Amino acid sequence: MTLKTSELTGDDNYFEDFVVGAIFRHARGKTVEAIDNVQITNLVLNTAQAHFNEDSMRDNPMFDQRVSFGGVTIALVVGLAMQDTGEQALAELGMDKIRLKAPVFHGDSLYAYSQVLALDESERQDAGIASFHHWGVNQDDVVVFEGDRRVLLKRRSHWAER
Predict the structure, then answer these.
(1) pLDDT tens sequence across 97-149
(2) Cβ of 69: how many Cβ atoms within 10 Å?
(3) How many domains does the chain have?
């Protein structure tokens, strides 16, 4: 059986479906596991002891445990937002104003929110540019990440039911 693209993705997240100012609380959360942090930290050759050496962190004056690499936090929060803001994406155009606001530790659960900042025309007739502000919070509703993202999204008028 072959599935159409429309059967694999949502039907309410084309460019025309977004409204400037709308805020989304994304459905899923994700608990940060040690493997999430250590694997990505090592893959990008980040040598900061704070990310993968528990012993070195025991006497640290700020934290008494390993801290997740900020790249992991960013990836998880944006990933949690993708079902609503990226399923119809043709291209990721950029991220800006990235702020890691509070530390994330192994065992923390992250949740994501997004606000539509702007909807702009693109050079393509079949797509428009959506700008989002994303933020992530932990299980205690502490904001751990904020950032803006621009995405080239399909227009329903050109892509739906293909």
Answers:
(1) 999 999 999 999 999 999 999 999 999 999 999 999 999 999 999 999 999 99
(2) 23
(3) 1
Distance CA 18, CA 12 (A): 8
Contact 88, 8 (CB under 8 A): no
Neighbours of 48 (CB within 10 A): 12
Which residue bears the tokens 């805020």? 23
pTM for the model: 0.87
Token digits for 116? 């539509």
Residues of the domain holding 41:
5-159
What Rg, from alpha-carbon coordinates, does the chain have? Answer: 18
Residues composing the chain: 162
CATH number for the domain spanning 110: value is 3.10.129.10
Task: Name the band, by pLDDT with cuts 50, 70 and 90, for residue 8.
Answer: very low
Q: How deeply is 72 buried, as exposed, middle or buried, from its count of CB atoms within 10 A (0-12, 13-18, 19+)?
A: buried
Per-residue pLDDT of 64-77, as tens digits, reads 888 999 999 999 99
Q: Tell the residue number behind the tokens 């072959």, with chain if given.
A: 2
CB 136 within 8 A of CB 76: yes
